Amino acid sequence: MRDVFVIGVGMIKFGRYRDKDVHELAGEAARLALADAGMTINDVELLASGNLLQAGNMIGQRIMQQIGQTGIPVVNVANACATGSSAFREAYVAVGSGEYDVAMAVGSEQMGKAGLLGGGGSGESVEGILGSGLMPAVFGMAGVEHMRTWGTTPEHFAKVSVKNHRHSTKNPLSQYQVEVSLEDVMNARMVAYPNTLYMCCPTGDGAAAAIVCSQEMAKKFGRKAVKVACSVLTSDPWTPRDLTMPDVNTLTRNAARIAYERAGVGPDDLDLVELHDCFATAELLHYENLGLCAEGEAGRAVDEGWFEHGGRTPVNVSGGLLSKGHPLGATGVANIYEIVTHLRGEAGDRQVANATVGLAHVIGLGSACTIHILTA
User: Fold this and answer.
1) Are 48 and 94 in contact (CB under 8 A)?
2) CA 139/CA 247 separation, integer angstroms
């Protein structure tokens, strides 16, 4: 694989857009990315579109109707919550393989107030008989398991929510920009123990786009390019546990090990991380899964502020899914947008100082995990 660079990114504010269709939102993000790269759609040779809830509606081709039907190949991607990041990986592989010089990834979703429950599916349901596959239950149980094993408390998880909501107040594209106190989080309505309302990501609408290119094209267009040091996609290996209780840890641990090897960096080299905090319990578990702290150490790390903005390794300075929002197909590309913005030094009030290495992580149960490490 040859080197691949991100040369343009674009993102619309996450929220609710009742007066627009999803391909219109995606088109806005795509146009922002093109303008950022100094390109037109005529420079793009492939489009990878990530959209989950309308996966059968040819969203990629409908985006082209918004930004220019040039006849290029369009790939539509659906991979649970890792849909957008998988689309980005498709664009990365297309350029890295040498087949194309410029490719665009667009992640989009229009959820309205649809809940983040599960992926559906067919056949006889075992819900409530062999555990639960509903997302709030899965990540609640994962949190309880960590509490039982390592003595983590509900307050530790609540502090994750407090941190991410505070971070979001400096991100104008975040769905919510409201600071909450520890008391607010702990006293909020319980959704699935130990996650209260503020410890669960909101759902909504949104879109983000990224343009990747070869080194030669990056030099031609002159925009400050960010290198994709690695792109990793994993799924769960078989374990007896998966028959009754989803494993939210192993696929991330496997992806992290491969990503650090390929990028030639370790957790201590990361200047910032955007990880998949669909629930507060998930973020705390992923501190350990990504090697940001030792196993069983996440609770102490939270108490000591390791992952705050200005801390040892800032995590989710965008506000994370907990406050920025989680329109499923858009999330993975939005994480890339955030990392690129910091590595360029263009993140404004939330800029992580002197950032040169960033990691973007997404998991989708079912299962899929992506990790992208980017370098300035």
Assistant:
1) yes
2) 10
pLDDT tens for 200-231 read: 999 899 999 999 999 999 999 977 899 999 99
Q: Which residues contact 303 (CB under 8 A, 6 or more apart)?
A: 156, 159
How much of the chain exceeds pLDDT 90, in percent? 88
Distance between CA atoms of residues 313 and 352, nearest Å: 10
Q: Residue 174 and residue 170: Cα distance in Å, rounded? A: 9
For 269-326, what is each residue's pLDDT tens digit?
999 999 999 999 999 999 999 999 999 999 999 999 999 999 999 999 999 999 999 9
Average pLDDT for 105-118: 80
DSSP string, 230-264: EEEEE-PPP-GGGGTS--SSHHHHHHHHHHHHHHT
The residue whose two tokens read 């391909």 is 23
Largest CA-CA distance found in the chain, in angstroms, rounded: 59
What b/e sequence results for 170-195 when a residue is b if at least 16 CB atoms lie within 10 Å of its CB, and e otherwise? bbebbbbbeebeeebbbebeebbebb
Q: CA–CA separation, 204 vs 14, rounded Å?
A: 7
Helix-helix angle 154-168:280-289, to 10 degrees:
100
23 carries an active-site annotation? no
Q: CA 88, CA 106: separation in Å to the nearest integer?
A: 8
Query: Rounded to whole angstroms, how far apart are CA atoms 357 and 366?
Result: 29
DSSP-derived pairing of the beta strands 5-11 and 74-77:
unpaired
The answer to whether 328 and 115 are in contact (CB under 8 A) is no
Q: Please tell me which residue in 81, 200, 201, 293 is annotated as part of the active site.
A: 81
326 is catalytic: yes
Name 322's Cβ contacts closer than 8 Å, sequence gap at least 6. 160, 161, 164, 165, 198, 199, 200, 201, 277, 279, 280, 283, 316
pLDDT for 77: 97
pTM above 0.85, yes or no: yes
- Given a contact cutoff of 8 angstroms between Cβ atoms, the answer to whether 365 and 246 are in contact is yes
Choice among 286, 326, 342, 361 that is catalytic: 326
CB atoms under 10 Å from CB of 99, counted, come to 12
Query: Tokens for 283?
Result: 């973020």
Confidence of residue 243 (pLDDT cuts 50, 70, 90): low
